[in-house]
Design brief:
The protein has about 220 residues and is of the alpha/beta class. About 25% of the residues lie in helices and about 25% in strands. It has a seven-stranded mixed β-sheet with strand order 7-6-5-8-9-11-10. Helix 1 runs parallel beside helix 2. The protein is globular, with a radius of gyration of 17 Å.
Amino acid sequence: MAAGGEQSNYFVREIEKNDGSILKVKQCYMGDVGCVVWDAAIVLAKYLETKQFYEPPAGVNVWADSRVLELGAGTGAVGLMAATLGAEVTVTDLEDLQTLLRVNIKENQTLISSGSITAKVLKWGEDVSDFLPPPHYVLMADCIYYEQSIAPLVETLKLLAGPETCIICCYEQRTEGVNPTVERQFFELLEKNFNCEEIHSGKQDPEFSSPDIHILHIRRKV
């Protein structure tokens, strides 16, 4: 636990990597949904380490030199994992999350050797020219929750994604309140321009997966 002065605003969530090193992700005691590490972020972060993406003894590392952009990064946990695996990462969120993102980048800088990570403001639905050419990967964990943000989010995906871009979306399926409606609206809008492939649990991290947390690969329709 952090204690004293500015540190008291934060508490730490540790994410152990497959090589035994530990990402230390600070969360805020007070704040909106972006201030904590949600389970879907852990599941997605660990998915990036699975053998299909990253198996150094076999010479496999799709993250090396890949340009990666995380949407709705919050604490930056997913983007930080990608950066430690060698990706050139930009983590994005609203202005009020930038301090937390910068704190976590600084906290984990020693784990990032061949990759890089930068935090920038990106409001969904607005200009994305600063983030082009299209990234190789767009990462998003638990971004499907506010009804009013669905159309801007899909618009941002349309603006960002090139023909080779793979969007990896991880979300926790929630059955209460407006959540099922919001999810349905997101996928109805998305499917006008994108194809979605759900990733079987057998391809996910065996320890960090859950029946109610889904991982999708999303690509622009040809």
